[in-house]
């Protein structure tokens, strides 16, 4: 890490800069700390790139998609301001050197056992990245950081932002997207990249890690010669040890269709080091010392006056929504429910500025409140009412873990069921600040395609390393499937884990990420009244959807539909589950006297254009602004 220079701002958004971690074609990267003391890495986009409107648009889309990336082997995107004069993005700080530095300067090629673990973890990280709809496009040794427990992938999705402005920008700057020695043949030829392109890059990375050399050489003989070797010649894999050589050759096939998928790479490298350290002892010792030094760094004194910078404050949201493969399913058993109490809707607001969004592909993502609810479908109805309103969200925005309390704030993420690996859920919990044993400890919302459940639980025990919540109560149920019910009959255990919160309830568990809070979380671009873009029936031209501001767990949409067969007018209302740059997620519609609708999402598809997607049927409805 280098000290800050006169050209470096002392702060970016809410983050105080400590030092410069590096710089590249996309911009500069800084070590920084949040006001709550969390250490992060902040990437500040290059000034010339920030002046490209198409780059800014694509950068905003890619950051939104990157927020959805989950998994344990990537650096999570925590925060961003894509509309600042100079856009920036903050990620979780990974206290370790790059694979490039370790192999080139500090240790040399890694042993076979380490390379196999590296292959497995990188394949798992690519699965998470691809599940969010991203292709990394720049997987290389300098974008892989090594820590004492595993490698981590950084900078996923960022390179794509340059695709649409590449020709003009490269003409003026000579910049190339991707690192020539670790590019795929498709990139070299200017063809469309795909997840298979990342697998080719993975093969090059593994060859470098095991031999200390890029498989296609360097640009010492000329850039064009290097690119030709990548596109046309076979790799030089001399010295690659048995046990990894066949896998690397398969990854480096010129035909993308012949390369293994990340899932296949992960399966072929399962087992790894077992319970043994994944890196040699001497290297691990150095990593530990490095992490301690960087995390203890204090940066410039904060007492000096800080002049304003051109970088604006970030949006309130700090967490990625669920990844594309996080489809919620129903689970649990069902005592009675009570109706959801309505909150008064706020007047609709027109957008104040245009902001692009990418599609949120999951069915269930978080929303406001409590801990301990589960969803169960296909059980007898217990007589619970279809709640018709939600409580308001938090009064202000905040980051989880702020103020030194690792439990504080809102958290969301995917759950897995140890008794059924295919049984996945998504939850959002919000802890109650200052709660004492016996008092309400947190709130939770669980949503599936068929039902939305809200509930709460009291704090049973409280230590600095764990909180246990008593079996809770269901406070609201909104159903699409009339047989779907909710249950809150087991304890929850919460444990901080490196900036995340590990949540366990019976067979269910998950690592939750910091999440957005607030009473006005709906982005302005969604607010207002909408109508079908291309009515398919005579009645549809009169249909209207209104989206207004409201907290998580409260109603934020009202939709009227006229039947094309009998002229009946139905009114639907829906509760906000998640509001992010990726889209809005709402629970099943509340419809008095009409057929219910399942959990659905809204995404921006263009200027004054929305798309509503039914997560049960996959049916989509394109909408345009009506006023």
Automatic annotation (TrEMBL):
Signal peptide: none
Top-level taxon of origin: Bacteria
Segments for region (Disordered): 298-354, 384-421
Alphabetized InterPro entries for the sequence: Kinase-like_dom_sf, Prot_kinase_dom, Protein_kinase_ATP_BS, Ser/Thr_kinase_AS
GO molecular function, one term: protein serine/threonine kinase activity
PROSITE patterns linked: PROTEIN_KINASE_ATP, PROTEIN_KINASE_DOM, PROTEIN_KINASE_ST
Positions with a binding annotation for ATP: 43
Stretches with biased composition (Gly residues): 385-394
Regions of compositional bias (Low complexity) in chain numbering: 307-326
Coiled-coil regions, chain positions: none
Keyword annotations: ATP-binding, Kinase, Nucleotide-binding, Transferase
Domain named Protein kinase: residues: 15-279
Pfam families documented for this protein: Pkinase (PF00069)
Enzyme Commission number, as recorded: 2.7.11.1
Protein name: Serine/threonine-protein kinase
Taxonomic source organism: Streptomyces sp. R35
């Amino acid at each position: 890490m280098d000290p800050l220079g006169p050209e470096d701002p002392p702060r970016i958004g809410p983050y105080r800069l400590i030092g410069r971690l590096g710089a590249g074609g996309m911009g500069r990267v800084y070590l920084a700390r949040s006001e709550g003391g969390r250490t992060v890495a902040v990437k500040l986009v290059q000034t010339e790139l920030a002046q490209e409107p198409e780059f800014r648009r694509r950068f905003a889309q890619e950051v939104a998609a990157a927020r959805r990336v989950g998994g344990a082997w990537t650096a999570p995107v925590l925060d961003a301001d894509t509309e600042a004069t100079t856009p920036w993005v903050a990620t979780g700080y990974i206290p370790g050197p790059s694979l490039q530095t370790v192999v080139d300067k500090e240790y040399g090629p890694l042993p076979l056992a380490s390379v196999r673990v590296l292959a497995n973890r990188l394949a798992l990280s690519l699965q998470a990245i691809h599940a969010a709809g991203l292709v990394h496009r720049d997987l290389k040794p300098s974008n892989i950081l090594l820590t004492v427990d595993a490698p981590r992938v950084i900078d996923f999705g960022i390179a794509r932002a340059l695709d649409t402005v590449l020709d003009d920008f490269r003409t003026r700057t000579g910049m190339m997207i991707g690192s020539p020695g670790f590019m795929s043949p498709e990139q070299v030829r200017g063809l469309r990249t795909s997840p298979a392109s990342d697998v080719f890059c993975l093969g090059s990375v593994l060859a470098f890690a095991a031999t200390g050399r890029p498989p296609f050489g360097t640009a010492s003989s000329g850039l064009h010669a290097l690119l030709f070797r990548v596109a046309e010649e076979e790799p030089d894999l001399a010295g690659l040890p048995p046990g990894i050589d066949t896998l690397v050759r398969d990854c480096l096939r010129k035909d993308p269709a012949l390369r293994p998928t990340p899932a296949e790479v992960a399966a072929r490298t399962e087992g790894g080091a077992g319970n043994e350290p994944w890196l040699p002892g001497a290297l691990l010792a150095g990593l530990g010392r490095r992490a301690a030094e960087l995390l203890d760094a204090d940066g410039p004194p904060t007492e000096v006056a800080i002049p304003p910078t051109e970088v604006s404050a970030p949006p309130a949201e700090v967490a990625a929504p669920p990844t594309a493969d996080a489809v919620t399913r129903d689970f649990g058993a069902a005592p009675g429910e009570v109706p959801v109490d309505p909150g008064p809707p706020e007047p609709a607001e027109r957008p104040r500025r245009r902001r692009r969004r990418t599609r949120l592909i999951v069915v269930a993502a978080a929303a406001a409140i409590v801990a301990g609810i589960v969803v169960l479908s296909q059980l007898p109805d217990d007589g619970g009412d279809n709640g018709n309103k939600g409580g308001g969200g938090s009064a202000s925005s905040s980051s989880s873990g702020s103020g030194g309390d690792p439990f504080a704030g809102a958290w969301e993420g995917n759950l897995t069921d140890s008794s059924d690996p295919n049984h996945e859920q998504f939850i959002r919990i919000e802890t109650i600040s200052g709660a004492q044993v016996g008092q309400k400890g947190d709130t939770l919302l669980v949503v599936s395609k068929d039902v939305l459940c809200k509930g709460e639980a009291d704090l049973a025990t409280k230590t600095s390393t764990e909180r246990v919540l008593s079996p809770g109560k269901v406070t609201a149920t909104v159903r699409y499937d009339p047989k779907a019910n909710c249950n809150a009959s087991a304890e929850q255990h919460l444990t901080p884990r490196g900036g995340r919160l590990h949540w366990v309830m019976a067979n269910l568990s998950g690592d939750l990420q910091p999440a957005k809070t607030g009473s006005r979380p709906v982005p302005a671009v969604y607010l207002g009244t909408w109508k079908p873009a291309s009515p398919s029936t005579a009645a549809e031209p009169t249909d209207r959807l209104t989206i207004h501001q409201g907290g998580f767990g409260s109603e934020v949409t009202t939709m009227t539909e006229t039947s094309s067969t009998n002229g009946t007018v139905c009114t639907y209302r829906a509760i906000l589950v998640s509001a992010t740059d990726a889209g809005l997620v709402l629970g099943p519609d509340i419809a008095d006297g009409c057929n219910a609708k399942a959990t659905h999402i809204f995404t921006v598809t263009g200027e004054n254009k929305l798309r509503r997607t039914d997560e049960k049927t996959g049916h989509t409805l394109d909408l345009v602004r009506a006023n």
